[in-house]
Amino acid sequence: MENFNPNRILITVGHPASGMADVQTLLQQLGMATPLAGKQHGMAAADISTYLLKRAGQKTDFLQPVVQIKPTPLWQSLALDLLLANDQQNFWGWADTQAIQMLDYWHEADPAFHFVLVYDHPAHALVRAFAQQSLDDAALAQLQQSWQHYHAALLHFYTRHPSRCLLVQATEVLTQPQSLIDALCARLNLALHASAALQLPTQPDAQQLYLAQAVLQQVQWPAADDEELQAAADVPQSELPPILPLTSWNVSVDLRQQLGYVQQTLEETQHTLAERETRIQAQEAEKSQREQALKESNEENELLLAQLHQVQEELERFYLEKQALQQTQEKLEQQGQAWQKQLAQTQQTLAERDEKITALQNQPANTAQLQELEEENHLLLAQLHQVQEELERYYLENQALKQGQPTGKKEPSSPSKTYPVAYYGAADRVKQQLSYRLGHTMVQQSRSFKGILTLPGALQQQVRQFKQDQQARAGQKLPPIERYADAHEAERVRQHLSYRLGKILLENYRTPIGWIKLPFAMRREVKDFRQHRVQSHH
Q1: Cα-based angle 25, 170, 36 (whole degrees, multiple of 5)
Q2: Which of 61, 436, 438, 441 could be stapled to 499 by a disulfide with Cβ–Cβ 3.0 to 4.6 Å?
Q3: pTM, to two decimals
Q4: Rounded CA gap, 134 and 445, in Å?
Q5: Which helix (H) or strand (E) holds 117?
Q6: CA 502 to CA 496: how far, in whole Å?
Q7: What torsion, rounded to 10 degrees, do the Cα atoms 365, 366, 367, 368 define?
Q8: How far apart are CA 341 and CA 336, in angstroms?
Q9: Are 93 and 207 in contact (CB under 8 A)?
Q10: Helix (H) or strand (E) holding 138
Q11: CA distances in angstroms from 485 to 91, 322, 376, 428, listed in the order given
Q12: Residues 371-421: tens digit of each pLDDT
């Protein structure tokens, strides 16, 4: 940022009870102009601090350690607007108590900004505070706290930037204005002169200072902060307020009454502080108990959460097992119905054959035909026994599934050992494989000329559908097909033409040579399938 008026802009900063306003009035009497508001934003100098502190959400009661705010680069335009509005003034400035939180902001805004940091003896500050309002115990404690935080920040800034700061004692410069004039002339290269028309504020009398010092002693106001400021100041206090003895000739009756009231108030304050300390200790003990209870509650919650997760896993496992059992039960019922139909047909055929045998027995000439019928009868009877055994087995397994029991039998040598639940549906597992689905699509599409033309697209669609089905069954774990009770059905499906053609396609599509061999391999597979089917019929 361009330096418009080097070494001629002053920001007066001090605690509200430090006499900063009187120092600002003195500077204006010495010729310092009041700054004009910014042209673009229309903000006065003190309004900038109020606005930025509000934007930053900072409090201005100074009851907490003072923190310097860091406005974003966008708000640097406020300082630039202020400089542009006052570029024709040679010597100008303003006073701002809130600027203690923005010292770094103004320091970085432009080298032209200099700072008059004002402090005073705590006794003078206490007299000013009593003149503004009546201070009870709480207000006095807050005043002491804000005073310490404010001057700690003031001294910290001064030690970092002494070349652009003047640390002055308010009572000294208000009683000896020439000390401030000499310091300003030396620091800012100004030609200032004290005139006889200077109007200086009235200083507190000895009785007021005595009462204030008595209060400071009673509340044990630390003197270390004031001593550090005195040691670092450019214009320190040359003479401390006198401590007067409390005698009848120099203290009025009203003052002694005031002092007695102050002492009584201080005793009450100490008693109140002791009670507060007791309450704080009780609250800390209660807080410790609550933290311990909260810790135990958190541990119990974590344990319950772990148990909940375990229960959820068990429920999910039971749900999957229930689905598998339901599917197995449905297949058993379907197979049982099929066996019952076959049993009824076999029994009907057997009855018809018995009638034929009876009729032929009455005809001696039909011995050969009778013998053939008897042989077929024996075969049907054996088949009937087999159907009955299968039907009985499916019935027992179905009953075990309904009762939630395993379908395996116990071994005699280990009565407590049982076989796991039997799985059915091996044929469906094979039919869901990509080889079978591709072969089935080829068989279906080859039945029409239009189907042959759309075969590539149909194959691609089948591959996409297979991948989607795989994603849908990603979390489902099924045992190997060899562990299914009807694993022989899987081998039967693998002999279907659909499975064999799909397998040939998957074996040959990966290489150019495979694509060349593919038609011949498929033709040979179809030929082998037909020959095998003819042989099996004979």
Answers
A1: 30
A2: 436
A3: 0.47
A4: 102
A5: strand 113-119
A6: 10
A7: 130
A8: 9
A9: no
A10: helix 137-160
A11: 103, 18, 31, 13
A12: 666 666 666 666 666 665 666 666 666 666 656 554 444 444 344 444 455
